[in-house]
Amino acid sequence: MSETPNAIEAVSAPIPSPGEQYFPKFKVTPALVKEAQALVAQYPEGKEQSAVLPIIHMIQEKFGYICPESMPWIAEMCKSTPIHVAGIVTFYPGIHRKCPGKFHFRVCRTIACAMGGGEELLAHICKKIGVDPASLTDEEPMGISEDGMFSIEAVECLANCGFGPNVMVNDALHQEMTPAKADKLITFLKKNTINA
Amino acid sequence: MLPKDAAAAEGKVNVQINGKWYRFPKGTRIADACNSVGAHVPCFCYHPKLSVAGSCRMCLVEQGMPPRLAPGATPQYNEDGYQTISWMPRAVIACANTVAENMGIRTDSKLTSEARRGVLEFLLSNHPLDCPICDQAGECKLQEYTADYGRGTHRFTESKTKKGKNLSIGPRVNLDQERCVLCRRCVRFMKEIVGEEVLGVVGRGTHNAIACYPGTELDSNYSMNVVDICPVGAMTSKDFRFKMRVWFLKSTPTIDVTNGTGTNINIWTREQQVYRITPRQNDEVNSCWMPDDARLAYKYINAPARLTTPLVRTDAGADQRPSTWDATIGLVTEQLHKCAPTEVAMIASARMTNEELYMVRALAKQLGITKLDIVPRTGEADDLLVSADRNPNSTGAKLILGKEGKGLRTIRNGVRNGSIRFLIALGEDLTSEEAGFTAEDLAGLDYLLCVSHSENATTKAADVVLPGVTFAEKYGTMINVAGRIQRLNKAIEPMGEARSDWDIYRSISQSLGCDCVNVIACPSPMAVLEQMALEFEPMHGLTWGNIGNEGKAIIETGVTIPLIEREKAKK
Question: Residue B473 domain-assigned?
Fold first, then answer.
């Protein structure tokens, strides 16, 4: 592979992230295979490919992101092809190709939250965790702090429009967020290693 | 009786296209219906042999149906027996929708062209517009439709999305992601026809791009078909790219000769040079596809190894030297007269056309020889289009010569034990693996006469070499493994002084004293065909004209072409 991967090589090029230290490295174990097989078994014979998305979710939950090594394995598990899996992984913004931080912020910027200050909140949290808001682009939607503790990305609707602006940290939803509440939350998270 | 009832009786429906009423079988796609009556529908993603994607939106047409009736109302028919069509305010795609009774379609209305104009503007918004250096220019759908529906100026002031360019995605195919219109024909072809899902779409929105997974390649023997079906210049052939602008090329419909399937092809030439081969649709032989190895089997036609003059060796051990046709035919006649017929063997080829085989038979008869056979050639069938029989005309050889290659071993033994002193090799390299002769076998002969289009070990060992032609330089017919007779057409003139093989055999027979008018007076391969039509029962009634470009099934061989069988089963 050349120094800068070309458009084809980029499909499976690793994207290094300091967040990797907080997640186990992807490894195929008999237990993992069994778990994947259980997901595949949910679908009728000949439709094994339908399990691609559930397995992707399972991998992302366990390992934080979909690393290049896992894509051919996922394909093998559900009788699909690596390019099909790569197509799905690169399509959904919710599927990460880069490892997020220990605490991953999803800041909603759909209309209700945006009107309630979502955009400002995004910039504020970015600054707080040391991420340049301008670095969040279509190609690279996720920013991560240098120590790998925090990562942030803008998302569309978190389905709590009445109580915006909404921020989701890992799996916990925080409503009616303000910069001050965000500061408090980040300070709390820094002190506590438990999940928010 | 109303038109709807008359149509229903035939299993058809009445459809109005651009104001005129037509009848189509139920289930016909609107795009196919329109194209069949000359109302051309522009398509990128729709391909009749692939599943419908409906993604390019280029085929939008205005569509209308009779209004839905109020409860209790009865339909009103006009004097022609049709209901009034009420036109829908939005256009529908012609590829994914089928015709219905009393449907109206407009392919030339304002709504239709406005809709297509809009679609095309979006397709061009990120297109690099690099037509001057694009190989597809001249046969590019995007270029054609831009001429029809393009705006001429860009309204987009944003910068275009950058994607991968000049990417090698396989040994024979290059990809330019920026030129791509994301029709996914290549993805569907590889998945549905070849069954190797190596191509896919990655990314989202304007970043969408065709890719293969790193470490895998588009290396199937059918990979170059994606170049043909790509409506734009995204997929280009490594072999053909930058070689020649397509509008300078002349295409000649003919057939492939690398194996028994007889894939229908077009040979693209300019000034006696072959530049590329592309498949030609024939739903009974090769659908729209062809294997890569057959597509690239044209390099020998314009290679330096081609023989351009007759060559003779006057003294044993001396070099061959060029000669003229008259002198060489005279010499060959003299030499053949001296040979005892029992000591002569002739090896013909199932790569010959029927017309050539007929003349070979006449020559063998004139010489009075019985030791005659062809070289059988087999390989592995690929369950798609490549037949296990690697000779293109084994069926013809069996019909005309009655030979299948079973006597080759006897001839080989005869040469080795000295009972055969004289050998005539027609269109075959005897040192090839399939023929099985060694250089020593050939050196031990008293006399070796050879007809060949290119130099090889046999021509080098021969006493007399007569230059023949390749399949691109001749007219003729061949019968494929399934028993279908098909035509070869001449795309270029014979190289140098080379002559059509059938004419070489005819000349020798004549010079040897053949007095059969049907042989010596034949003016053309078409006349030979007519002669054969009288002689061989399966060929009865055949003429050059009625075989046509599609060929004609004449013999029941019991052999089928797997890809075609699958296609038929799908319907």
Answer: yes
pLDDT for res B461: 93
Is any Cβ of chain B less than 8 angstroms from the Cβ of A14?
Answer: no
Find out whether A97 and A141 touch, Cβ atoms under 8 Å: no
B464 touches chain A (CB under 8 A): no
ipTM at complex level: 0.89
Per-residue pLDDT 10s for chain B (571 aa) are 889 999 999 999 999 999 999 999 999 999 999 999 999 999 999 999 999 999 999 999 999 999 988 998 898 899 999 999 999 999 999 999 999 999 999 999 999 999 999 999 999 999 999 999 999 999 999 999 999 999 888 898 888 999 999 999 999 999 999 999 999 999 999 999 999 999 999 999 889 999 999 999 999 999 999 999 999 999 999 999 999 999 999 999 999 999 999 999 999 999 999 999 999 999 999 999 999 999 999 999 999 999 999 999 988 788 999 999 999 999 999 999 988 999 999 999 999 999 999 999 999 999 999 999 999 999 999 999 999 999 999 999 999 999 999 999 999 999 999 999 999 999 999 999 999 999 999 999 999 999 999 999 999 999 999 999 999 999 999 999 999 999 999 999 999 999 999 999 999 999 999 988 888 889 999 999 999 999 999 999 999 999 999 999 999 999 999 999 999 998 7
For residues B420 and B518, membership in a common domain is answered with yes
Which domain-ending residue is among B302, B320, B340? B302
**CA nearest B303: which of B277, B265, B274?**
B274
Upper half-sphere CA count for residue A42 (Cβ side, 13 Å): 14
Domain assignment present for residue B126? The answer is: no
Interface contact B211-A93, CB threshold 8 A: no
**Which domains can be identified in chain A, with CATH numbers?**
15-91 (1.10.10), 103-191 (3.40.30.10)
Residue A86 contacts B, CB cutoff 8 Å: yes
Half-sphere exposure (Cβ direction) of B135: Cα atoms closer than 13 Å: 22
- Alpha-carbon distance of B503 to B511, in angstroms, equals 12
Phi, psi angle pair for A104, to nearest 5°? -105, 120
Here the tokens at position A35 are 């778990």
- Across the interface, whether the CB atoms of A83 and B197 are under 8 A apart is answered yes
Residues on chain A touching B204 (C-beta within 8 angstroms): 90-93
Residue that terminates a domain, selected from B302, B329, B347: B302
Q: How far is CA A25 from CA A19, A21, A62, A140, B54, in A?
A: 11, 9, 9, 22, 41
| The residue to which tokens 């390099």 are assigned | B299
Question: CA-nearest residue of chain B to A139?
Answer: B207
Residues B255, B162 share a domain: yes
CATH of the domain at B492: 3.40.50.740
Residues B178 and B317 in one domain: no
Do B294 and B390 belong to one domain? no
Instruction: Tell me, yes or no, whether B363 lies in a domain.
Output: yes
Task: Give the containing element (helix H, strand E) for B329.
Answer: helix B325-338
Whether B203 and A93 lie within 8 Å, measured CB to CB: no
Kind of pairing, strands B209-212 and B199-202? antiparallel
User: Is residue A93 less than 8 Å (CB to CB) from chain B?
Assistant: yes
Is the CB of residue B317 less than 8 Å away from at least one CB of chain A? Answer: no
Same domain, B424 and B537: yes
Task: Tell me B44's DSSP state.
Answer: S
Name the residue of chain A whose CA is nearest to B195's CA. Answer: A81
| Domain total of chain B | 3
Domain assignment of residue B56, given as a range: 3-69+77-118
**Residue B384 counted as domain residue:** yes
**Are B412 and B504 in a shared domain?**
yes
